[in-house]
Design a protein that fits this description.
It contains 17 helices and eleven strands. The longest helix has 34 residues. β6 and β7 form a beta hairpin. The protein is α/β, with parallel strands linked by helices. The chain has four domains: 79 residues, Rossmann fold; 170 residues, Rossmann fold (3-Layer(aba) Sandwich); 75 residues, Helicase, Ruva Protein, domain 3 (Orthogonal Bundle); 84 residues, Arc Repressor Mutant, subunit A (Orthogonal Bundle), CATH 1.10.10. The termini are far apart. The strands form four sheets. A five-stranded parallel β-sheet has the order 4-5-8-3-9. The protein is elongated, with a radius of gyration of 33 Å. Bound molecules: adenosine-5'-diphosphate (ADP) and magnesium ion. The site of magnesium ion (MG) has 3 residues, from α5.
């Protein structure tokens, strides 16, 4: 090899094509130069001469080297796919609520801080956790998920920290825990609110000094992991009820991320529906389906108790069961057939506070007045409309001094909004044509 020595060649090949395995065969071997060759990136190092018998070994070695190179490039490819799967583009939504979540995600991804993600089930907490990992320095290391709510308490400790052989009846061999597996990567502790108090103590210790002992062992292990936890519970309630340790809460809640329920970010619903539709349409060839405008409207005003997961499942079901080129409102399940009003929201509490009683009183009067307005002052129907006993409603009206004078609610509204009707009947029962006998 004129102009370059073997070692330098290996180095350059390794730089140029890191997945290409090199086997060095040399006539002038020494222990030092073999180490040098391996350091330079060689897969293996052989010394000449070798005879017929050695050839089989070389053949095996070459096969192995090829396999090794193939796995390496495949791994790189998968890793890249995985990363792109959890980049931000895969988190759909344009609501300001979601955008502010993503803004926090992109900031904390660059740090090593522990993160606590809270939100109802199906809102995308795991997706957020993955986005943090795959946008962090740890992206090419493991992202390990543990669902603390799904694993029985006795098993969870060994699942998290591993065990040694003989630690308990079925421990026939040493087993690594998820914390060890996640070394240099990220561990995602889902449903952290379900963790038993014994394990909460052990977890607290890992968070404090990143050390633990496997079940049945007294040997302390240390790990380098980033911890992300999630829960759909209100941990502050759980602390008040002594189900969750306050010190653990503060250790976890270094960076809190709250993922709002889908009904509080209606802007995201059409985008998500279309996104899941596109996925469901993939592979259907010419058979792709669309949503009618009405379907999108119904979906947008629906409350989605199961959040994004429920929407995702519904779209998949609709596409699977529908044959027409368009999914129409009558294809929707009953709960979505009627457009439900958004749930009433409580007023913002001003800095100086407010009287709970007054607000609730006002709210009740408002509802009764609205009902009377809709039924043109018919107390029977008004009571029915708000599913209230007529006598109860009358009592409430008397107590609160609510009077329906037919000029609608401006007696109670302070925003000066115009009455919807200018005149109406006196407060009194007007026979309802539909219900009169
Ligand atoms: N903003 C989003 N964009 C795209 N898919 C989402 C979004 N939010 C949630 N999903 C999907 O909804 C499902 C539930 O999300 P997940 O992260 O498991 O919720 P959680 O952990 O809060 O129960 C998953 O399939 C997830 O990919
Ligand atoms: Mg989840």
């Amino acid at each position: 090899m004129p102009g370059i020595n073997g070692l330098e060649l290996v180095r350059q090949i390794h730089e140029f094509a890191p997945d290409l395995p090199c086997i060095v065969i040399t006539g002038f071997g020494s222990p030092e130069s073999s180490v040098e060759a391996l350091k330079a990136g060689a897969y293996w190092y052989l010394e000449k001469p070798f005879d017929q018998g050695h050839l089989d070994v070389v053949r095996r070695l070459v096969e192995q080297a090829i396999e090794h190179g193939r796995l390496k490039s495949e791994n790189r490819l998968l890793q890249g796919q995985l990363q792109s799967r959890y980049r931000f583009e895969n988190i759909i939504g344009s609501s300001s609520a979601l955008r502010s979540v993503l803004e926090t995600v992109s900031k904390v991804a660059l740090t090593e801080s522990t993160v606590l993600i809270t939100g109802e089930s199906g809102t995308g907490k795991e997706l957020v956790a993955r986005a943090i990992h795959f946008n962090s320095k740890r992206a090419d290391k493991m992202f390990v998920t543990v669902n603390c709510g799904a694993i029985p308490e006795e098993l969870l400790e060994s699942e998290l920290f591993g065990h040694v052989r003989g630690a308990f009846t079925n421990a026939v061999a040493n087993r690594e825990g998820r914390f060890s597996v996640a070394h240099e990567g990220t561990i995602f502790l889902d449903e952290i609110g379900d963790m038993s108090s014994t394990l909460q103590v052990k977890l607290l210790r890992v968070l404090q000094d990143r050390t633990f002992e496997p079940v049945g062992s007294s040997k302390t292990q240390s790990v380098d992991v980033r911890v992300i936890a999630a829960t759909n519970q209100d941990l502050e309630d759980a602390i008040a009820e002594r189900r969750f340790r306050e010190d653990l809460f503060y250790r976890l809640n270094v960076i809190p991320i709250v993922v709002p329920p889908l009904r509080e970010r209606q802007d995201d619903i059409p985008l998500l529906a279309q996104h899941f539709l596109d996925i469901a349409n993939e592979g259907r060839g010419n058979e792709t389906v669309e949503f009618s405008d009405e379907v999108i409207e119904r979906m947008t005003s629906f409350g989605w108790p199961g959040n994004v997961r429920e929407l995702e499942n519904l779209v998949e079901r609709l596409v699977t069961l529908c044959s027409a080129p368009e999914i129409v409102a009558s294809d929707l399940p009953k709960s979505l057939q009627v457009s439900s009003p958004p749930p009433p929201t409580a007023p913002q509490i001003p800095p100086q506070g407010l009287s709970f009683r007054d607000v609730v009183d006002q709210f009740e009067s408002d509802l009764i007045l609205q009902a009377l307005e809709i039924t043109h002052g018919n107390k029977n129907r008004a009571a029915q409309l708000i599913r209230m006993n007529r006598t109860t409603m009358l009592e409430k009206m008397k107590k609160k001094g609510v009077k329906f004078d037919g000029t609608s609610r401006d007696s109670i509204d302070t925003d000066g909004s115009a009455p919807t009707r200018d005149a109406g009947p006196e407060t009194g029962d007007i026979p309802d044509p539909q219900r009169s006998h």
